[in-house]
Amino acid sequence: MAGTPRRYHSPRRAEQAAATRAAVLVAARDAFVGAGYAASTVADVARRAGVAVDTVYASVGRKPALLRAVLESAISGTDDAVPAQDRDYVARVQAASSATAKIETYARALVVIQARLAPVFLALRDAATTDPDSAALWAEITERRARNMRDFAADLRATGELRDDLSDDDVADIVWSMNGPEYWLLLVGGRGWSHERFAGHLVDAWTRLFLRRPGPAGD
């Protein structure tokens, strides 16, 4: 009786496939940010990556899949999507013991993310004005950001340090507006702020806006 055929697994082949995917993602990012999503083709991406068009399809997918993969890579800092709850900085935020420490941890992580994400995010926003697939992805990512910020607001609320006159939705909406790539590009790109200054600004603004002020001495 013949045995069950063994699956052949080659670590070297897996490494080559991962390297090819990484090269395709870099090429797609450069194309979409540089020329725009609408003006870029899969052939352009293949040429930039130094691979065949069929290789782009096999390693990532068609053009909408490329845009999604580039965006998820920019968010996670890896070649694959990483759910928010599994990201290292989210664990650090959740482990911080005070609202101020949580805000500081998140702001420091945000500037690292925005440096790679902002150009991709704006390329997606521009593509969404004319391309239905991009519009659907834009709506999905926008709502996902809002949902993640509601989780962040709830985490801050659990410290007991937030103002009572602000709801979690209020806090989430304010953070959502200030952690957007548009705000980053206004101050870092437009006004030349350093990453450190931008992070410090967010910490200062959010602690002033969200946290209870100490009462008079003796209270």
UniProtKB/TrEMBL annotation:
The keyword Transcription regulation applies. InterPro entries: Homeodomain-like_sf (IPR009057), HTH-type_TetR-like_transc_reg (IPR050109), HTH_TetR (IPR001647), Tet_transcr_reg_TetR-rel_C_sf (IPR036271). Residues 41-60 bind DNA. It comes from the Bacteria. The keyword DNA-binding applies. Residues 18-78 form the HTH tetR-type domain. Keywords: DNA-binding, Transcription, Transcription regulation. Transmembrane segments: none annotated. PANTHER family: HTH-TYPE TRANSCRIPTIONAL REGULATOR BETI (PTHR30055:SF234), HTH-TYPE TRANSCRIPTIONAL REGULATOR RUTR (PTHR30055). This is TetR/AcrR family transcriptional regulator helix-turn-helix transcriptional regulator.
